[in-house]
Amino acid sequence: MTTLPKRVDDNTALSNESIREAEEIFNSHLKRVGLKHTEQRDAILRTFLETHEHLSTEELHRLVKRSDPRIGFTTVYRTLKLLAECGLASGVAFHDGVTRYEHQYNRRSHHHMVCTECGSSVEFFSPEIEKVERDIGQKHHYVTTRNTFQVYGICERCQKKKHIKRELH
Amino acid sequence: MTTLPKRVDDNTALSNESIREAEEIFNSHLKRVGLKHTEQRDAILRTFLETHEHLSTEELHRLVKRSDPRIGFTTVYRTLKLLAECGLASGVAFHDGVTRYEHQYNRRSHHHMVCTECGSSVEFFSPEIEKVERDIGQKHHYVTTRNTFQVYGICERCQKKKHIKRELH
DNA sequence: ATTGCTGCAAACGATTTGCATGAGG
DNA sequence: CCTCATGCAAATCGTTTGCAGCAAT
Question: How confident is residue A11, by pLDDT bands cut at 50, 70 and 90?
Fold first, then answer.
């Protein structure tokens, strides 16, 4: 039951400059918590930054193996956790039981609509949401920093599937 | 990491009338898809409607066993899926790997603004958010069921604390 | 040298399914 | 009577961990 998230066009490709900055963030995080800088971790970060969508650990592992087939699943898994720790990645638990990650570096805040049947998702950006954030903050005297917004529903394909099922009865 | 939803006093207790309506919705859903009305399913729905928070299948099972110790985990699990199917429940996949459900019957969706310093929160309701949900759903041909919206920031009191700290330096 | 890293394999745990028995229509 | 429901036990599958050998500092 693993339907991949819907592909979303976006132009979030990072410049070399941005990639260097992200590596910098990662390296100083490693130093701060007393961990080592390794080739694998570098490769995983670089591959991850090239992606634009939600990726499961397994999917990222598949991509990473293209640049170095000797990198194991466990290393990808653990590196993804490190990246989340220092804010470069953020994970979303999907309804199919798989946690998918996306890189957060140099991306403007965006939101997700997730299908509760198949777990596929659509990414969108809404200025209205940002306005609500500002208004609510002002009203309650908060200095707001960020928000999360998710919409749940059933995608077109799953709606059709349900109709077909029902017609069979 | 997963911060569990804060306990918020709310008076979402359902009237007997509402409970009957929910049962009605459930029963006609069962009929529609050719399933049977059983004592267990009734008991599970009733227990579920009494709750106010996110519950894992296991937690609901524990509660259900209080009214009938013979009801098994699998039945609760499957009933929860049925409830989600007809819109009476909605599940959220938490980051600890557990899916928790909350009943959606006669609850307006509400949102939280959380202080990232002290964890205190403000609850609010925003019609604009509901409108964005509808619009986005329409645009991408989703039938939307609900949304979550959280704003993060720093509350007034914590802002003042920070000023004081700064003045000490 | 010391300490952490890697990757395999095995453990874990929530979820899901197969199946024999029991209940609803 | 026939069909679906139930609940146990077993299977599944993503995630996490133990450990022996390897690499970074």
Answer: very low
> What is the nearest nucleotide to A98, using C1' and CA?
D14
Is B158's pLDDT higher than 90? no
Could A113 and B143 be called an inter-chain contact, meaning their C-beta atoms sit closer than 8 Å?
A: no
**Centroid of chain to Cα B164:** 39
Segment holding A164, helix H or strand E: helix A156-168
Does the CB of A2 fall within 7 Å of any strand D atom? Answer: yes
Measured CA to CA, the distance from residue A152 to residue A148 in angstroms comes to: 13
pTM of the model: 0.70
Distance A28 CA to C20 C1' (A): 60
Q: Are B151 and A137 in contact (CB under 8 A)?
A: yes
> For B14-44, what is each residue's pLDDT tens digit?
788 889 999 999 999 999 999 999 999 999 9
Q: Indicate if the alpha-carbon torsion angle B157, B158, B163, B169 is positive or negative.
A: positive
Strand D–CB A79 distance below 7 A: no
Enumerate residues 6+ apart whose C-beta is below 8 A from A50. Answer: A63
What's the CA gap between B1 and A75, in Å, rounded? Answer: 20
Do B154 and B116 contact (CB within 8 A), yes or no? yes
Beta-carbon separation of A142 and B156 below 8 A? yes
- Share above pLDDT 70 across residues of chain B, in percent, rounded to a whole number: 82
**DSSP symbols for B96-148:** TS-EEEEE-TT----EEEEETTT--EEEE--HHHHHHHHHHHHHHT-EEEEEE
Token pair of B44 as six digits: 């599970």
Percent of chain A with pLDDT over 70: 85
Residue B139 pLDDT > 90, yes or no? yes
Count CB neighbours of A87 within 10 A. Answer: 12
